[in-house]
Design a protein that fits this description.
The structure holds 2 protein chains of 2 kinds. By secondary structure, chain A is of the alpha/beta class. Chain A contains 9 helices and 12 strands. Chain B has one domain: ABC transporter involved in vitamin B12 uptake, BtuC (Orthogonal Bundle). Helix content of chain B is 76%, strand content 2%. The longest helix of chain B is centred in the N-terminal third of the chain and has 34 residues. Classes of the chains: A alpha/beta, B mainly alpha. At the A-B interface, helix 2, strand 6 and helix 3 of A face helix 9 and helix 10 of B.
Chain lengths: 260, 331
Amino acid sequence: MIQVNQISFSYADSPVIRELSFSIEAGEFVGIIGPNGAGKSTLLKLLDRILRPQHGSIELNNKRLSQYNRRELARLIGFVQQDFSSAFNFSALDIVLMGRFPHQKSFSFDSAQDLEIARRVMILTDCDYLRQREFNTLSGGERQRIVLSSALAQEPKILLLDEPTNALDLKHQLHFYEILSKLNHERGMTILTVTHDVNLAAQFCKRIIVMKNGEILADGKTSDVLNKETLQGVYDTPLEIVRHPNSRLPVILPELKNRA
Amino acid sequence: MQADTKKKLYFLILVVFFFLVVFVTPFIGSQSLNYHQVVAYLSKVQTPDGIIFFRLRLPRIFLALITGASLSLAGVVFQALLRNPLATPYTLGVSAGGALGAVTMIKLGLVFSVLGFTTIQLSAFVGSLLTIILVYFLSRKTGRISVNTMILAGVTISYFFSALILMLHFLADFTETRQMIRWMMGGLDVVDMSQIIRTTPFLLIAFVILFLNSRTLNLISTSEETAFSKGVEVDHVRRIIFVFSSLITGLVVAISGPIGFVGLIVPHFLRLFLGVDHRYIIPASIIFGGSFLVLCDTIARTILAPIDIPVGIITAILGGPFFLWLLVKSR
């Protein structure tokens, strides 16, 4: 579905992505992990053509990304950005309805169908009760579900998420990933999520891509990639991997030094 | 939807207010007019009341309408484009550029008419446009516009031009200085109907284009990346919006001078009850911005009649306290 060939990208003179190649099949649930500055967020922006690679190419459904117009792209890819906020006080429903933009004429009011789709995605992400609230007054967890709903209102085939659970507490983190898991299982939605929470990735993602310094260090099935050697190398931190007593999935624990 | 019905009701009130203002204010003034005398003018009888009504008051009210509408709309658009609720039509230096153009021409003393416009107006218009072009190119980085650089460039250029204007003031004699200061206060008193007729089509085209982009502005006003990922060709759309909102600001500044506060308070006032959706705010700012300035101008020409106070002073006196109230209220 997505084919990335030898892409490179740099901001001014500092290279962020170096000759990266990989491919994503339809229906995959991929976690992208790696230390700060690895180029993870930049990679997502390249995949949604918010940025364009200086070298190499990205293909989506066997067509180069640069040949799509923005509306076509928005109907295929939904992007949940990091720290979405608005200078103006839109209601939660307004934000969700913005996701209908690629399906509407440039100028129009929202049709009954738009409203129905907004209602459905908000029920799916469990935030329908927030529709009339002002977006800027919502809690972190509520906001993320609204932003996700807005991306889903685009009816995309692929969902890109940039550290979506960063500001969320434990319960909301799990809740958010359960929604993603449901979208992946029930609708076959392809999901790529950047995360710092290796344990959440371990629980939900089927495939993990490990990045460092703009390159891919490891890429494969979650249980194969999340091993002690790889992770210690990536994060420069001694750590231990144990198995979850019930699910048998890997759990990553940092090794604490010099504890009094 | 209940919220939508409410918005439509408010909108209707604005429309009624608009017509009320347009039909009532021409009859208000230092000289009270007789309705029958005014109507008689229509059947080619040169009544004095008719002349005051049709030759003096109506053109002035029409100028106030298009000026108020343009400044309010430009305020809305710049606030969305720059993602900054404190932006005004003048944030990017349009008025400073216009003022520098006007003041330079006054100092040079080359005051005559070209195509129905005075050289001062033309020079102000050229000054506005050159400033906007300068700001645009200063904030271009690798083909893309940085909004923060744009605001910084606009503000810096405004200060720089103010210094140049002060220097010209210093070099000017008393008559020139008075003329310069009077220009900078903004006013709707020197009106030639042909100027209005020549600029209005451009303004109307710009109004329509900006209105058609209101949904896009909603997206751009949240964040650039959101707009991109939801299907907006941000760079292209932003250029169009930028060009037309600068154009209308430049035009009205050239004709009426830099009338302050309208572009700041009208958008904020309307958002209080219409919300932030540009599909409502843009037409509302055109309708209410126009009628608001007509009202301010009616106050300006009657409160100390027969003295005609520059309308910019009235908008500032009304606008300042209103904005402070808004600030305290939203805290």
